[in-house]
Design goal:
Blueprint lengths: L6 E5 L3 H13 L4 E5 L2 H8 L6 E5 L7 H9 L8 E6 L4 H9 L4 E4 L4 H19 L13 E5 L3 H13 L4 E5 L2 H10 L4 E5 L7 H11 L7 E5 L4 H9 L4 E4 L4 H13 L4
Parallel strand pairs: 1-2, 1-3, 3-4, 4-5, 6-7, 6-8, 8-9, 9-10
InterPro entries: Bact_response_regulator, Sig_transdc_resp-reg_receiver
Organism: Marinobacterium weihaiense
Protein name: Response regulator
Length: 267
């Protein structure tokens, strides 16, 4: 799949910001770009043509970016559309639902060209691998067993699809740490990818139990979190995680780490 084959919807009320974003998109090779000032008309357009990427601001005249992505995820045809948010918003209440909805990136506003290019590169690689996976040099990944632990079904779905796109098909899901521990008693895994904030047993408790009380204490554990508290992050690190990744996930980083943990080499 080539860049000029992708359809991008840009939803931004500011004409200046809209122009900047569209110019950047053109520079990286995207040609099919449709601009919108509000979310409503963009959603209406999506009922007729499903885009490959939606780039949206947070505060729109008719709704927030949070409401927009929620409506998209509630529509079967739009559930898997790649969503990229550009916003100066920092409030947890607005950003966390977007992180949980499987957004591929959240960029600050104002942003620099390099930040947008990085987010788009990750997006392109994700879409490319999803539609046209590259053949693996070996079938090592085909037999890898991965456990995904997250209370958000949409986040689990995004990580599962990411695993599938790089050649890993043996994926099991758990909705929280408690369910994950029950699954770990029954099967062995090559990698555990867990969210941090979850009900019942959170990611930190899960890691501590795996490292001290399970029969697979050396399994690599990748923690995905939007946590910013330094003390909590330090606690996660000292619990024995193999890597801490920000949410939204950086797809290229995810690919590299998964290959490193499962095969000992880089993608």
């Amino acid at each position: 799949m080539n860049l000029d084959e992708l359809l991008v919807l840009v939803i931004e009320p500011s004409k200046l910001q809209r122009t900047i974003i569209i110019d950047y998109l053109h520079e990286v090779g995207l040609q099919e770009i449709e601009p919108f000032e509000q979310a409503g008309p963009a959603l209406e357009r999506m009922q007729h043509v499903v885009p490959d990427i939606v780039v949206s601001s947070m505060h729109l005249p008719d709704m927030t970016g949070t409401e927009l992505v929620s409506r998209m995820r509630d529509t079967p045809a739009l559930m898997d559309v790649t969503f990229l948010l550009i916003s100066s918003e920092t409030h947890y209440r607005y950003l966390e639902p977007i992180r949980q909805a499987g957004a591929i990136a959240i960029l600050p506003k104002p942003f620099c060209k390099e930040e947008l290019e990085t987010a788009l590169r990750n997006t392109m690689h994700y879409i490319r691998d999803l539609h046209d996976p590259e053949p693996q040099e070996s079938d090592e990944l085909e037999f890898m067993q991965v456990l995904i632990v997250d209370d958000s079904p949409l986040s689990r779905k995004f990580v599962r699809k990411s695993m599938n796109s790089i050649g890993i098909e043996q994926v099991v899901e758990a909705k929280d740490g408690a369910e994950a521990l029950q699954i770990l008693k029954q099967r062995r895994f090559d990698l555990v990818i867990s969210d941090y904030n979850m009900p019942n047993i959170d990611g930190l408790e899960l890691v501590e139990h795996i490292r001290h009380y399970s029969d697979q204490p050396t399994v690599p554990v990748m923690m995905i979190t939007s946590e910013q508290n330094e003390k909590r992050l330090a606690s996660i690190q000292s619990a024995g995680v193999s890597a801490i990744c920000n949410k939204p996930l950086d797809y290229d980083t995810l690919k590299r780490l998964v290959r490193q943990f499962t095969t000992g080499s880089d993608l």
